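User: Predict the structure for this protein chain, please.
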Amino acid sequence: MLPGVYVAYKKNGTAYYRSNITFQNKHISLGSFVTEQEAHQAYRDAACLLFDSSTAIHDAFSLPTILSFHKVISLLNFRDNHIYFKNPIYLKNNYFVYYLSPTEELKFDIDDLFYYSNRKIMRRQGHLFVNDYGMQVNILSRYGIKNYAVAGRDYYFANEDPWDFRYSNIIVINRYYGVTRIESSNGFTYKTQIHINGIYLVGLYPKEETAAVAYNKAVDLAKKNGISKNFQMNYVEEYSPREYAEIYNNIKLSEKYLDYLQRLNLI
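Assistant: Here is the predicted structure, written as structure tokens:
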């Protein structure tokens, strides 16, 4: 066998060739190939990357190699930062880049390194998600952003870079179900709405958390009076159970919403 190559067999007996290399006492798999020559070429390409520091990270985007782009990123990061990740991660100063593709560089805080080094980021219908304990989890949920949230309305990127997921760059405007922040010359007001065969105004409130409680109360009223819908509820951690109960009992809902329920003979 050529250097860096060993033969393996499929269940049907067909031979294929695996390539690997050892660097800094770590054994690294480079992938499977149809021919021995391809596997050896992968070994040679990896050796050039690992033992020749003249190839920089920006060269990876146009590098002629049989290795996958993601494998190239992993090898360059290992060479430069002495940490090997199976995922296409490259460490920077105080943050890291996850290369979804050669043209898509996702930036994250170092605090998220353990999480994303063990979970592959995937894309489906424009959404980025990871498999977390068997569930598909939108990466925006780590910032308290709900699946229904709309960029520009419910959250925005401070530096206008939608690939920069560092915590300081993501500004969450609307954190709760049914609550929308309204800006005026006097500051912010929080509008609570509920969707039941159309959108109904629950009320306007001075605090976001109070508006979230109002939404929960509106949902409870709807369910109590026979509206069977799978409503999401808000968890308002800013209030103790006693504070939550006091606000819940005293908060007022709009007459229009209550009249709507009454007209349906639900109250």
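The first strand starts at residue 5 and ends at 9.
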